[in-house]
Structures are given as structure tokens and as C-alpha cells.
Amino acid sequence: xxxxxxxxxxxxxxxxxxxxxxxxxxxxxxxxxxxxxxxxxxxxxxxxxxxxxxxxxxxxxxxxxxxxxxxxxxxxxxxxxxxxxxxxxxxxxxxxxxxxxxxxxxxxxxxxxxxxxxxxxxxxxxxxxxxxxxxxxxxxxxxxxxxxxxxxxxxxxxxxxxxxxxxxxxxxxxxxxxxxxxxxxxxxxxxxxxxxxxxxxxxxxxxxxxxxxxxxxxxxxxxxxxxxxxxxxxxxxxxxxxxxxxxxxxxxxxxxxxxxxxxxxxxxxxxxxxxxxxxxxxxxxxxxxxxxxxxxxxxxxxxxxxxxxxxxxxxxxxxxxxxxxxxxxxxxxxxxxxxxxxxxxxxxxxxxxxxxxxxxxxxxxxxxxxxxxxxxxxxxxxxxxxxxxxxxxxxxxxxxxxxxxxxxxxxxxxxxxxxxxxxxxx
Length: 426
Prior knowledge:
The protein is mainly α. The protein folds into four domains: about 5-100, no CATH class; about 130-215, no CATH class; about 230-290, no CATH class; about 315-415, no CATH class. The chain is built from 17 helices and eight strands. It is found in: Cytoplasm, Cytoskeleton, Cilium axoneme. This is Cilia- and flagella-associated protein 206. It comes from Capra hircus (Goat). Essential for sperm motility and is involved in the regulation of the beating frequency of motile cilia on the epithelial cells of the respiratory tract. Required for the establishment of radial spokes in sperm flagella.
């Protein structure tokens, strides 16, 4: 680019929109300081196209904007823009999406606001670096490769946390440079805005030679293990027999603090494997390994928690663990109803009702099966109520049919027909 462009800057409209155009810019070391993407739905694009076509008659030249051409351009743009956006977001963090559905003035104000923000970051950076101070490197389009190549003595660990509390706070999981700073040509990453401000105010205190604690060697830094990495360490065993070292230490090494760890939260430190109870406990160990690594278990340990199958229990225990709740509900319902089926004993009537209740409210059965047995239970209850009805309506003296209740004869015949039939399926 020319000297004027290098000094005053340049605005490029509609470029890059393909991966090839991105590679051309990178090959010539042209990195846009800020990229704006106007996000407009396809429906709105074609609506605006129709409005423009109404004005074409007043133009002395034809426009290259037919519906087919715009549809092809829009399709190619949607296909390529995702990959380009991801590239700049990862490499330079300079991509901003603006809602293009608003008015031109609103979009203009948003663009000006973002440009002023980036210029302010650049001006503050230049002023502080020129004065020999530490400066934040956010919004400067620094790529991950450049960041790694210029990291200071602490790598991606927070120097402020290491100096103040001797904690190893790993910032590598945060790709943002919001809390990163440059000092004496090296980059440093902090864990929070508070830590960044402390570093910017007094950077000499947190870097050598005045730093109170150097970064431990690589073999003395704890490393989190994935499941595959943990399996590859076999046949090595976990320290503390798999109990969580953080829970045990924070619980003042009491018997109640012996909690088994979860293999999803494993780590390696000093060629030893530790398994923590949760992600929070894992982070505690990673930050302060010196506090948790060297512990010994007591002689008395909790019994191993092994799975026990219900079928292996004795019958009373099996009933208690398997169907206790359902059985209590069924027996309570039978006690409230006190069923007595015609021509059956009270005991057999109650047992049949409990069996139907268990079938009708079994959560493991299908909806069809539950409805089927609910109908059978309702029929069973209706037949049990025949005894109460007939005892109330039947008198010692004979009554002529015209003086009896309307449904008396029908229920009496139903009662007599139940003498020798199956009470459930009959």
C-alpha cells in the first residue's frame, strides 16, 4: 500500500468475501484493524432490491442487480462468510457483527462507536509503551502464534496470582486478550480485570527480577488428564486410593472427608495421579498443588461402595427396597375401602384388590397396561359394592317387582352370577 494509506488508513468495502482473498491479504501482511459484517436477512435483502428497482427508470444506465444475480451472490456469500468470520475471530479477534436491519444513521453510529473504541485502545497502547509502561494488548489484532512466541517467563499463567497468593492460575483456556498486557517486549495474561489493573499499575513487581515467586519447572506444574490419558497411565494407581485430596485436606483430614474422586476430574502432579471429586476441587488442586499433594490416608477407611442388585437381597429386604412405597399405597387404599367380593373371603378380596392396585399404578408398565388394570380394578370395586347395596335394599318381607328399586333385580342377578366365576377376568 502507498504511504498515504499506511499513514491515514484505508476502508475496503466488500472485501474479503472468499478464502482466496483472505490468503492474498495475509500474504502481503495486510491485517484489517476492524471488520464490520452487516447482518441482514435474505428476505430483507430482496425487499430492498425491489425498492431499488422502482428507482431504476430515473437512472441513465442499467444496473447489474436482477433477482437471479442477487440470489447467486447472496448464496455464495452465505456459503463463504462463516469460514472467513471464524478465521478472523480466532486469529485477530477483530470481527464485529452489526444488525443491518436498522437505519443507516443507526448503523453509522454503531460503526463510529466501534472505531473510536479500537482507536482509543491503540492510542493508549502506543502512549504507555512509549513511556516504558505496561499496556493492554486487547483489540490489537495479535494472532495466537504471535502471542505464544512473545509470552514472558510465566507462559500463560497469571503472574499476579502467582506473586500474591502463590497460585498457578492457567489462562490458556481463555483465548481472549481482554486481560493480556505487554511489558518490556513480552506478553503476560491475567485471570481477571482486577489482576490486569494491578499489573498495569506496577508491572515491575510481578516480573523478574522483583517477582517473589518464579514459575515452577514443567514437571512441577499439575496437568489435567483426559479419560484417554488416564487410561494410558495404566497400571499406575491413583494416590490416596482414589479419594479426593482436596476434600480430605479441606475437611481437616477427618474420616468424614474421605470422598471417592470422579475419574472425569483426574490430574497428574510429580508423576503421581490424583482424582478429585468435582471440577471445583480439581481447579483448587491445579492452583495450589503444594497444599494438597503430600497426604496420607488413615488406617481406617470407609467400606467400598459396591453396587448391590435387588435380587440378591433376602425377600423382606427385596420387598422393602423394590416395592415398599407402592405396596404401602395399595394397602392403605385397601384399608380405606375394605373390599369384600361376593362369595369370597375378606382376606382373598383384600389380596385381589392389592394385586389390581399394584398392576394399575405400576410406573414400569405401559400406559395401555395401566389403563387395562384400572378398568379391572373399577369393575372389582363395583362388584364389591353389590353386597352393601343389596343389604340396604333387601327387606325381610317379600316385595312385588313393582315396589322394588329399578336396578334391584339387575344387581341381584349380577350378584348371584358371581358365585363360580373368576373375580378378575370373569
